[in-house]
What we know:
Bound molecules: zinc ion
Order of helices and strands: HHEEEEEEH
Mean pLDDT: 84
Helix content: 10-25%
Number of domains: 1
Shape: globular
Oligomer: single chain
Amino acid sequence: MGIVETEDRYSGVFDVVKCPVCGSDKWTHLVYQGVFCRNCNTKCTLREPAGDQGFITEFDGTYTWSVDDGEKIPETEEYAPVASGKWLGTENIGYHRHWFSARADHVHDDCEWEPAWNREPKNENEDEHSYPTTER
Ligand SMILES: [Zn+2]
């Protein structure tokens, strides 16, 4: 099972999937090693869901680099820094995200990690208040 086979079977997937750590949608395919976020080096592995059309992603943060916009996947005593999600659909009709969570969510009720697409944009909100216009 090389990565080449994965690419063929799931064509278009990496146009849809964003990195949950930093929000990047740029991926690097390293033959025999896997697919890594070009920005923060989080590893992404694809699996086939049982009985559904779509795909399952597993993100491994073991080798994630520290980047400005990144929040690393939480690690617990039980689990490595892993998060996974399921997308349903096909390349022709499009994919949509069905669920997504960090493994640590299952053991820590107070796990505050959110994937990049659920986080509040930090800078954009501040800008709204930065330049008040006064009319005279
Ligand atoms: Zn990333």
